[in-house]
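The methods section describes the discrete structure representation at length, but only in general terms. The central task, working out the structure tokens from the amino acid sequence alone, is never made concrete. Nothing conveys this as quickly as seeing an actual entry. For illustration, here is how one protein appears when written out as sequence plus structure tokens:
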Amino acid sequence: MSEIFKEAFGQIVEFLEYIEKTKDIKYYLVGGVLVNIYSIFRTTQDIDFVVDIESQDIAIEEYVSYLKGGNFDPMQDWDNAILLSKETNILQYFDQKNYVKFDNYIIQRANPNKYKKIGPIALKRRVRKELFNKKCWVESKEDFILSKLVFGGWQDYSDALGCWIRFESDLDVPYLQENSKFLHIEGEFELLSSGVSDPDEFFEKLRRNQ
């Protein structure tokens, strides 16, 4: 990873640790930034994470005021970012030097969409890790796999497969089975656990099974 990326990573982790300590806003990292601890290393340009402002009854406007205080830069402006986040539950902005993009997912428990249901599930099982010399909260190995199968792209499956191969003997398979059903991705998990090692073959079999 470049020094620019590591610096941006340090900025956002320090911010997230601070608001958890002072505002009790829980967070955890997700996505490509975790591949070097969970899967096969690859470069990534963005840093993705989830925050739970809902449990503290904090409005998005108040949360954005904290981001402003941290000197983060919105993609357009903060007013538009707030409006868009109310539709998508995602805030997108840049680090303090405007180099690295952050995808800031916001937990919404009432949303039945599988892309939103994974958020509170993974929050319950977040784990403490050291990443780029920073202690931080990240999603568990099992939830890394589940979230990758939920989002379902070619790279997502490759990442999930890498984690499965690397940690198969250590994974909580009953948990994965139970929550793959809850998230309506049981077909995807069955193919993953059956040993389909080629993403193209995975998607072809998934298409035939639907």
Remarks:
- Residues 3-139 form a domain with the Beta Polymerase; domain 2 fold (CATH 3.30.460).
